[in-house]
């Protein structure tokens, strides 16, 4: 098989959660362990950093990878899902996995695929671990797919575990309450391995984390208790922040620039800086200049897309991959704070989310362009319009995000603002991304 035939085979042969949802969900570590055992357990051949959470784990993973890369380390980065190209999931120093490795790996694993019937995610996790070993990375940052405890990535014993945020998402798999979901995320905490939790959230969530860490003798740090992160402004598209050390009460960064300019990054940054602090105590060599240059250039260093990404200026256009109530709450606050008087929304969702809860976050005075992602889990745009009407949002229906976005641009004056999102897969379908 050539590269395209290989990718087609993987998507056709293996159950893909992003495409079919619950039918592809395969909890447990046995299959991944078997796949990796057949490969010589590549995940044990280099240090790892494990990142879980409901929102923010992708951004956090990319920030940590960028910082380590700027510090001179050869860094593997595994994330999911991809936006445009399967190869985005597996990168070394910002470069996508090469096509030939994917071809050769898939060919070599066909007997295991037939024997074990793994999910798409299980195969890609094993592929990432093998690729990083072959590339001789110094460290790999591994983002959890869903949950943590039973996620395929959870066969690693990392140098540090990072948990970003707990909110309601994938409740059919992870639990109906925040403490239940926290318990699944806390499943990445390992015996005596330091854990950083980005936010000290409500008491019930914190107790789950503290209890799990205590039971495993894992030192725990809450990023929000370690640092105060305050937005101080914007400059050339970058968000400027002040960082205050809560122990010394001193400002340790003034106008630190972040090219990931979404306001939700304020929560992620505390966890990132706390993780870096822990890594340095372990003997890693991460300097202030490396942190500063990396955080200003995460997109260029790692290839991250779709996080509060500006697509146009007149009209002002932002896209964002927030896809649950917690993530959209922050995205909507930031978008609604823009001074632009007329605000337009190009939105679409997958059907297995809290659609009504998310729609209630959008302003009733907005102008709406409803679409659907090119994904079999997509909520039909006409059904979305009906749901939106029930909460007081009115708009037109379009076949896809690009038609909807073009209509919004055509309707806009130069001082208008357009938000594109609702689903990772809506953002992935944007042609100009």
UniProtKB/TrEMBL annotation:
GO cellular component: cytoplasm
Source domain of life: Bacteria
Signal peptide: none
InterPro entries: Folylpolyglutamate_synth, Folylpolyglutamate_synth_CS, Mur-like_cat_sf, Mur_ligase_C, Mur_ligase_C_dom_sf, Mur_ligase_cen
Gene3D superfamilies listed in its UniProt record: Mur ligase, C-terminal domain, Mur-like, catalytic domain
Catalytic activity line of the entry: (6S)-5,6,7,8-tetrahydrofolyl-(gamma-L-Glu)(n) + L-glutamate + ATP = (6S)-5,6,7,8-tetrahydrofolyl-(gamma-L-Glu)(n+1) + ADP + phosphate + H(+); 7,8-dihydropteroate + L-glutamate + ATP = 7,8-dihydrofolate + ADP + phosphate + H(+); 10-formyltetrahydrofolyl-(gamma-L-Glu)(n) + L-glutamate + ATP = 10-formyltetrahydrofolyl-(gamma-L-Glu)(n+1) + ADP + phosphate + H(+); (6R)-5,10-methylenetetrahydrofolyl-(gamma-L-Glu)(n) + L-glutamate + ATP = (6R)-5,10-methylenetetrahydrofolyl-(gamma-L-Glu)(n+1) + ADP + phosphate + H(+)
Pfam families in the record: Mur_ligase_C (PF02875), Mur_ligase_M (PF08245)
Pathway involvement of the protein, from the record: Cofactor biosynthesis; tetrahydrofolylpolyglutamate biosynthesis; Cofactor biosynthesis; tetrahydrofolate biosynthesis; 7,8-dihydrofolate from 2-amino-4-hydroxy-6-hydroxymethyl-7,8-dihydropteridine diphosphate and 4-aminobenzoate: step 2/2
GO MF term list: ATP binding; dihydrofolate synthase activity; metal ion binding; tetrahydrofolylpolyglutamate synthase activity
Domain Mur ligase C-terminal: 306-423
A GO BP entry: folic acid biosynthetic process
Cofactor(s) needed by this chain: Mg(2+)
Record EC number: 6.3.2.12, 6.3.2.17
Keyword field: ATP-binding, Folate biosynthesis, Ligase, Magnesium, Metal-binding, Nucleotide-binding
Domain Mur ligase central: 51-275
Family from the record: Belongs to the folylpolyglutamate synthase family.
PANTHER family per the UniProt record, alphabetical: DIHYDROFOLATE SYNTHETASE-RELATED, FOLYLPOLYGLUTAMATE SYNTHASE-RELATED
Function of the protein: Functions in two distinct reactions of the de novo folate biosynthetic pathway. Catalyzes the addition of a glutamate residue to dihydropteroate (7,8-dihydropteroate or H2Pte) to form dihydrofolate (7,8-dihydrofolate monoglutamate or H2Pte-Glu). Also catalyzes successive additions of L-glutamate to tetrahydrofolate or 10-formyltetrahydrofolate or 5,10-methylenetetrahydrofolate, leading to folylpolyglutamate derivatives.
Record's protein name: Dihydrofolate synthase/folylpolyglutamate synthase
Species this protein is from: Dyadobacter luticola
Lineage of the species this protein comes from: Bacteria, Pseudomonadati, Bacteroidota, Cytophagia, Cytophagales
């Amino acid at each position: 098989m050539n590269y395209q035939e290989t990718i087609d085979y993987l998507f056709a042969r293996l159950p893909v959660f992003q495409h079919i949802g619950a039918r592809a969900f395969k909890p447990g570590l046995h299959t991944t362990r078997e796949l990796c055992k057949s490969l010589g357990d590549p995940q044990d051949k280099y240090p790892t950093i494990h990142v879980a959470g409901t929102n923010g784990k992708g951004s956090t993973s990319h920030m940590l990878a960028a910082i380590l890369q700027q510090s001179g380390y050869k860094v593997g980065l595994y994330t999911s899902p991809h936006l445009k190209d399967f190869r985005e999931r597996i990168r070394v120093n910002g470069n996508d996995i090469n096509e030939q490795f994917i071809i050769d790996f898939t060919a070599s694993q066909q007997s295991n695929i037939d024997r074990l019937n793994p999910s798409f995610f299980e195969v890609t996790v094993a592929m990432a671990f093998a690729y990083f070993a072959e590339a001789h990375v110094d460290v790999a940052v591994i983002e959890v797919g869903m949950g943590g405890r039973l996620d395929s990535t959870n066969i690693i014993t990392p140098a540090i575990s990072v948990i970003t945020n707990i909110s309601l998402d994938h409740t059919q798999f992870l639990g109906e309450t925040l403490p239940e979901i926290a318990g699944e995320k806390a499943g990445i905490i390992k015996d005596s391995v330091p854990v950083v939790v980005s936010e000290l959230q409500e008491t019930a969530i914190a107790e789950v984390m503290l209890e799990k860490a205590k039971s495993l003798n894992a030192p725990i740090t809450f990023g929000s208790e370690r640092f105060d992160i305050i937005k101080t402004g914007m400059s050339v598209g970058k968000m400027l922040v002040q960082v205050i050390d809560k122990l010394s009460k001193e400002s340790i960064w003034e106008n630190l620039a972040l090219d990931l300019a979404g306001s939700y990054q304020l929560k992620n940054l505390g966890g990132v800086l706390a993780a870096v602090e822990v890594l340095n105590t372990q003997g890693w060599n991460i300097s202030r200049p490396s942190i500063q240059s990396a955080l200003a250039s995460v997109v260029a260093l790692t290839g991250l897309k779709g996080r509060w990404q500006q697509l146009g200026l007149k009209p002002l256009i932002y896209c964002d991959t927030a896809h649950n109530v917690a993530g959209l709450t922050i995205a909507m606050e930031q978008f609604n704070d823009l001074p632009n008087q007329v605000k337009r929304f190009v939105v679409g969702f997958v059907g297995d989310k809290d659609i009504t809860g998310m729609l209630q976050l959008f302003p009733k005075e907005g102008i709406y362009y409803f679409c659907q992602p090119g994904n079999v889990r997509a909520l039909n745009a006409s059904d979305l319009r009906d749901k939106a009407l029930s909460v007081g949002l009115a708009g037109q229906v379009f076949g896809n995000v690009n038609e909807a976005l073009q209509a919004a641009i055509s309707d806009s004056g130069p001082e208008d603002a357009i938000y594109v999102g609702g689903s990772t897969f809506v953002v992935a379908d944007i042609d100009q991304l």
